[in-house]
Design goal:
- It is a single chain.
- The protein has 756 residues and is α+β, with helices and mostly antiparallel strands.
- It folds into 5 domains: 8-153 and 176-196, Jelly Rolls; 201-317, Galactose-binding domain-like (Jelly Rolls, Sandwich); 358-553, Alpha/alpha barrel (Glycosyltransferase); 559-628, no CATH class; 700-755, Maltose phosphorylase, domain 3.
- It contains 17 helices and 36 strands.
- α5 (380-393) runs antiparallel to α7 and α12 (565-573) runs antiparallel to α13.
């Protein structure tokens, strides 16, 4: 994509002179339609610098003179199309030729009218497909979408759905039947030039054919991912091959999709099916308008597959890897890779929870993973776009919806569950994380109004108090109203029962802690942006919320709970005073030891668990948790053969039965600790600090972060009675050695040896 050729205003002005064109004939809006193909022939006297500016209702793939335009797949991406529809621009100078030219555009259903969300809603943004484009050469319009275009529904893509799959008939690749398009009066006011990054075809994995115990033919690609299968085979015209995609095999070693079956909420199910009807001879194909979450594919065909080749192709946004880690434990190395792969699988234009069942931009998932995401990959453009969707989804009263872009019908139950603490607080925490990693005040400025409104909403909630908490002198800052998901997916806790309890009695421990967290961050953000009065206001709110929390959720600063999260959260957020934090960390350590060095935390506090233990003198316990192989633990999944992070700690149970998503990045937040804790790379508020927390149980560790400040490296190993530490700094930094000594260092390489 090239954005230098034409100024933004000129491009949008030219595009507004084009017309929305609908390629379809009258049809039943509730029946899947073939992908539409549109074409336009045009003549130019000479080939020169040219830009194609294009968007659509649905998804588009453009071809100019037989060559694909750009490498953006699933364009124009997702979003709340009614408020913001992104427009891409491509430099097509090398594709144009003097004389006759032909532009063809194929439109698929995509997020616009295909299945979205766990309910599989269709026609969410509209029932139509439509194209809008303009081609500029030397700043002059040489082609635009208008009534002169032709269209056809006789092309090879017979059905397509982003979730459900695609049907392709290779015998229909030569289109002979065309009809005029229809000009439609759709809005141009929601058009926005895309400043983000494209969704791309990425890594490729060759499939291995195997026979399962029940006699089915199944492909194993070796890596769970989001993407599709590409096939290469020789067949006779009319022969058919069907591929069903899934994440795992069941307890008997057979293909299954049960773990992401949406049940009655989506009666169409999520088949993740490709159906390909062959032409005579060699067939090479992959879908254009669908992606799946999968490692395995069940094959149904009568074609001889002896020489066939099947390749899984990963599809995700442009995310250059920036974080690297390796150590002396191969299971931990695999855990790090699993975190990377779950991030890749769920950063397809916006961050989502899983690539199968929901594909929803859950705010809570992004909030807990963001500090790790900025270490693993350059994800600023993806998270920035998603925060824009959060702003669009925010209600007038400040409520931040749990999912952005919204992809549900807004039922009474759904509305009751909105505005959960820890989920809505993503609107404050994620911009803060991006600011710390990238040093961009712009991200704070863009989202300040959303943050402010969220704090207003939370403050109004706090002013209502349940009878049981009326004795709290700071009750106007205690959040015991509203629904909250809480920890979510804690071992030994039934999620549905926890939700009912939260609706009946509130969740003041979680909600008030996050009120404090967001208010305290807002005080810092306001000060950075020069809003001194706001900074003072939010600092006061934070102090009162802390007092409210301490009164209701502690006994004079002492925590009384058998759940680890109740200790992790107040220590990590700074809700305790003086020696109270150390005492809470000590109690947490005792709880972990008493639980056989197993964690019992859920989504919200797991990312901070090892930090809290290690930062308060319990590094040995942190490592025992990290290296625990029995469920619940991070390495349990690795030992079970996982290549991504699971939604639950026991996604594949001891007996081999499977449940829930097996590609869910939230618990992969532990990989952030491998970089910032194990190897001690800490960059925040413009300051770099190296403070590793080594342990012999890991053998050695090396981390590298290609940060916005430059390459940062930290590596340690043991040699007899010495710890050897080597660091490389792009800027001056403070280096804290395990013996407590502090060194103020200049940029460059530094070597240390510590006697043990």
């Amino acid at each position: 994509m090239d954005k230098k050729a034409v100024k933004t205003n000129d491009l949008l002005a030219a595009l507004r002179n084009a017309q929305w064109i609908d390629p379809e004939l009258p049809h039943d809006k509730n029946v899947r339609q073939p992908a539409s193909v549109l074409r336009k022939c045009f003549t130019i006297s000479e080939a020169s610098e040219a830009v194609l500016c294009i968007t659509c209702h649905g998804l588009y793939e453009a071809v100019l003179n037989g060559q694909r335009v750009g490498d953006f797949v699933l364009a124009p991406g997702t979003g709340d199309y009614k408020q913001r529809l992104f427009v891409q621009q491509y430099d097509v100078s090398n594709l144009l030729r003097a004389g006759e030219n032909e532009l063809t555009v194929t439109l698929g259903d995509g997020w616009y009218r295909g299945s979205v969300g766990i309910d599989g809603l269709t026609n969410y943004y509209g029932e139509d497909l439509a194209l809008l484009c303009v081609l500029l050469s030397d700043g002059q319009t040489v082609l635009k979408s208008d009534e002169s275009w032709d269209a056809s529904q006789e092309g090879p893509t017979r059905e397509n759905d982003l979730q459900q799959g695609e049907t392709y008939d290779a015998r229909k690749e030569e289109i002979t039947s065309w009809h005029p398009v229809i000009v439609r009066d759709f809005s141009h006011e929601n058009l926005v030039l895309d400043e983000g990054v494209p969704i791309l075809l990425q890594e490729r994995f060759e499939g291995n054919l195997l026979k399962t115990p029940n006699g089915e033919t199944v492909l194993d690609f070796g890596q769970n991912l989001a993407g599709f299968t590409e096939l290469r085979l020789t067949a006779k015209a009319g022969q058919k091959i069907t591929l069903w995609h899934g994440e795992t095999l069941d307890e008997n070693g057979n293909f299954t999709q049960k773990n992401f079956d949406p049940g009655d909420r989506n009666k169409a199910g999520i088949p993740q099916k490709l159906e390909y009807i062959c032409k005579d001879g060699l067939n090479v194909w992959h879908p254009r308008f669908t992606i799946f979450g999968f490692r395995y594919a069940k094959v149904e065909t009568d074609i001889d597959l002896k020489d066939a080749q099947f390749t899984s192709v990963a599809v995700y946004s442009k995310l250059p890897q920036t974080g690297f880690f390796t150590c002396g434990n191969e299971n931990v190395n695999r855990l790090f890779q699993n975190s990377l792969w779950s991030m890749r699988s769920n950063f397809v234009d916006v961050p989502t929870d899983c690539p199968t069942r929901e594909r929803a931009g859950w705010t809570g998932d992004a909030e807990v993973f963001a500090p790790t995401a900025v270490l693993l990959a350059d994800c600023y453009p993806v998270l920035r776009k998603w925060l824009g969707e959060c702003r669009l989804a925010q209600k007038e009263d400040g409520l931040v919806q749990n999912i952005a872009p919204v992809n549900n019908a807004g039922s009474m139950i759904s509305n009751m569950l909105q505005g959960s603490a820890g989920w809505g607080d993503a609107c404050v925490i994620v911009p803060w994380v991006l600011y710390n990693a990238y040093g961009s005040k712009e991200i704070l400025e863009e989202n300040y109004e959303m943050m402010r409104k969220w704090l207003v909403f939370t403050g109004k909630r706090a002013r209502k108090t349940r009878l049981s908490n009326l004795r709290n002198p700071y009750r106007r800052y205690l959040v015991d109203q509203g629904f909250h998901f809480g920890e979510w997916c804690q071992p030994g806790v039934n999620n549905m029962a926890a939700m009912k309890t939260a609706m009946m009695h509130g969740m003041p421990e979680v909600a008030t802690a996050y009120y404090y967290r967001s208010a305290s961050l807002m005080a810092k953000i306001a000060k950075i942006l020069g809003k001194e009065k706001d900074a003072e206001k939010y600092a006061l709110i934070a102090e009162n919320a802390k007092n409210a929390y301490r009164f209701t959720c502690t006994k004079d600063g002492k925590i009384l709970s058998d759940r680890q999260c109740a200790y992790v959260r107040p220590v990590a957020f700074g809700l305790l005073r003086g020696a109270e934090a150390q005492a809470a960390a000590d109690d947490l350590n005792a709880l972990v030891a008493g639980n056989g060095y197993h964690l019992n935390t859920g989504f919200l506090s797991t990312p901070d668990l090892l930090d809290v233990l290690a930062n308060y003198g319990h590094t040995d316990t942190a490592y025992r948790l990290l290296l625990q192989e029995e469920c619940p633990s991070w390495l349990y999944a690795v030992k079970k053969g996982a290549t991504t992070i699971w939604e639950t700690w026991d996604g594949v149970r001891a007996d081999g039965t499977v449940h829930d998503s097996l590609n869910h990045y939230s618990y992969g937040a532990v990989s952030g600790w491998l970089i910032r804790g194990v190897c001690g790379i800490l960059l925040g508020e413009g300051k770099l600090r190296i403070a590793p927390k080594p342990d012999r149980s890991l053998g050695f560790a090396r981390a590298r972060w290609e940060s916005p400040a430059g390459r940062i490296e930290s590596a340690w190993r043991y040699e007899e009675d010495r710890l050897i530490l080597d660091v490389n700094l792009p800027v001056p930094a403070e280096v804290v050695l395990p013996d407590g000594s502090v060194h103020e260092e200049t940029e460059g390489a530094h070597h240390y040896e510590v006697l043990l």
